Amino acid sequence: MIRFATLMDLDFLAMHDTHISQERLHLAIEENRILIIEENELIGWLRFSFFWESIPFVDMLFILEPFRRKQYGTELMHFLEREMIIQGFKELMLSTSSEEYSQHLYLKLGFKTVGGFFPTNEPYEIMMIKKMIRKIERG
Asked: Where would you find the membrane-spanning parts of this chain (predicted)?
């Protein structure tokens, strides 16, 4: 099941998502910018923000080790894409380390590499974007 995070998830997220302060996590939860995937237990999460305050940007996609390579990341990405299309967005952006396997997932999901940069003391960061298309339901 995928759902938006609640304040009940804050302690777990603060313990595992060390790239953001607890105060910012709290705000992201209040703004419905964190998705949780779970099946009897928390499996992973997706945290997003907005690039230029206008393009949804995936800040963090994380699946706990025992659950990796089981399509949970794909499910979170599809859920986010549907939500953003409903809200009227046409593009979705993200960045990923050149050393992370996730870049291959994003390419399979239709993202295109549009550039990158070298953060201080970090490996090359790849910038990616996807044009989202609203599928028309026929019935």
From this structure: none
75 DSSP 8-state letter? H
For 81-93, the DSSP string reads HHHHHHTT--EEE
Quote the CA–CA distance of 103 and 98 in Å, as a whole number. 7
> Domain residues of the chain, as ranges?
2-131
pTM: 0.90
Provide mean pLDDT across the span 47-71: 95
Quick one: CATH architecture of 2-131? 3-Layer(aba) Sandwich (3.40)
Strands (E) in the chain, as ranges, are 2-4, 34-38, 42-51, 55-63, 91-97, 112-117, 125-131
Q: How far apart are CA 47 and CA 134, in angstroms?
A: 22
Are 43 and 53 in contact by the 8 Å Cβ rule? The answer is no
Burial class (CB in 10 A: 0-12, 13-18, 19+), 79: middle
Task: Name the burial class of residue 125, with classes exposed (0-12), middle (13-18) and buried (19+) by CB atoms within 10 angstroms of its CB.
Answer: middle
Mean pLDDT of 99-121: 92
CA distance linking residue 76 with residue 68, whole number of Å: 13
